[in-house]
Amino acid sequence: MSAALQPVDPANDTQTRQRILLAAERLFARLGYGATSLRAIMAEANVNTASVHYYFGGKAALLRAIFDMRVGATNAEREQLLDECERAAGKRAPQLRGLLEAFFGPAIRMSRSAEGQDFNQITALCSVDPDPELRKIVHDAYDQLARRFITLLRRACPQLDESTLYWRLHCMYGSMMYVRTQNGRVDYLLGDASGGLTAEEILDELVAFVEAGFLAPAKARPRKKSR
Amino acid sequence: MSAALQPVDPANDTQTRQRILLAAERLFARLGYGATSLRAIMAEANVNTASVHYYFGGKAALLRAIFDMRVGATNAEREQLLDECERAAGKRAPQLRGLLEAFFGPAIRMSRSAEGQDFNQITALCSVDPDPELRKIVHDAYDQLARRFITLLRRACPQLDESTLYWRLHCMYGSMMYVRTQNGRVDYLLGDASGGLTAEEILDELVAFVEAGFLAPAKARPRKKSR
DNA sequence: GTCTATATGTGGATAGAC
DNA sequence: GTCTATCCACATATAGAC
């Protein structure tokens, strides 16, 4: 915490600690956490092999430091946009579209920015890694805000029962993650047909898809008793 | 190829080769490919430390052998269901819902079956791994069929321009993958609210969401010139 | 604070006896 | 075909000189 929470100031990147953070971010994003060795990071950052332990204490702590450095901005923007949704709705239920834009927008903009794209990849990779330690880092970084989002989402979609909400949230997260990382599967299949869209246009596409998904009529199912 | 393409016969699992395949499948699914050592596999399978190299030639070849063993059934079922979609449509465009059920159904059923769930996880993990070798294995296993699916999808959704199709396919793949693996994010947030649905009910939820997403009106955008 | 040297562990792969 | 013993590369981490 403390200084680590500040966004990176490029003017400071001559300092050892910052150089390590940025080198690690680059490599974790390209190779994944598990496949990146501290040696490779230290070579990329041009520091000696003891620096990471001196400054951070180890590999996992270094990853946490990267999250500490980056999550603040995205979460703050999301909070602020959700505030606006609530304010605009007054006593009424918030608008689904506005909630989705508040949740996806900061993430998509980050994924398309030069400074944010590496961290965006790291978030996506860690969130599906089987290693519980990595999952926990993602959890700690994002879940408080996600809970607020879901509370508002429930009010915007009162027609959805708990189980339908559960599975649609999977679809929502999956859609967001695949769009954020532009997972190479589709490029294999279509070629790069992304169309050179801006961040706001991509956001539009994502929101349109997910909004329609949440608005789809819910299947009537015989209710199972809850225990 | 050849014998490796047959589904596993549990009665044969006394044989060394089969024991290795099943142990590796279990561990790759739980820990991921990169985090699983051959030593751990060989301990789990109760074979000596040279067997994997003798039977498969190495770690990557072992993973390929698992894919060879498993992909046949899912792909065959998908092909057959797509055949039925085309037959039912005759000269008209195929139905979107039928295509989605043909594409998702075999995967969802596999993900909920005792024999298929480990391989399902492996597919999901490898398809987002940054290692190009793993991505290529997924590519080789699934992309021929995916191309056929997309060709039919285009006919079912003629209103979608290429760029919109590109981004919606990301949403589709993301939704399918997150539902298949039941990514733990949502369980953190909601608790397990999955509702104990059957495979067919989960398929219904997924298809409803994605169908609505594909049917959402496409944004009119100023057309960029293609080069 | 910075660096070299090294401790200690684990990975994939293989040689060669049986 | 099966197994033991081992090679060698590379991982994280640390001790201790400067």
Could you characterize the architecture of this molecule?
Two copies of one chain form a homodimer. By secondary structure, chain A is an all-alpha fold. Chain A folds into two domains: 10-55, Arc Repressor Mutant, subunit A, CATH 1.10.10.60; 71-215, Tetracycline Repressor, domain 2 (Orthogonal Bundle), CATH 1.10.357.10. Chain A is built from ten helices and no strands. Chain A has helices spanning 16-31, 38-45, 51-55, 59-89, 96-111, 117-128, 132-156, 162-181, 184-190, 199-215. In chain A, helix 6 crosses helix 7 (132-156). Chain A is elongated and about 60 Å long. Mean pLDDT of chain A is 92; it is low at 1-6.
The gist of it:
The structure is a homodimer of 227-residue chains. By secondary structure, chain A is mainly alpha-helical.
Indicate the topology.
The structure is a homodimer of 227-residue chains.
Chain A: H1 16-31, H2 38-45, H3 51-55, H4 59-89, H5 96-111, H6 117-128, H7 132-156, H8 162-181, H9 184-190, H10 199-215
Helix pairs in contact in A: 1-2, 1-4, 1-6, 4-5, 4-7, 5-8, 5-10, 6-7, 8-10
Chain A binds a DNA duplex (18 and 18 nucleotides) through residues 16, 37-39, 47-54, 58-59.
Any key phrases for this structure?
227 residues, Arc Repressor Mutant, subunit A, mainly alpha, DNA-binding, disordered N terminus, Tetracycline Repressor, domain 2, 2 domains, 10 helices, homodimer
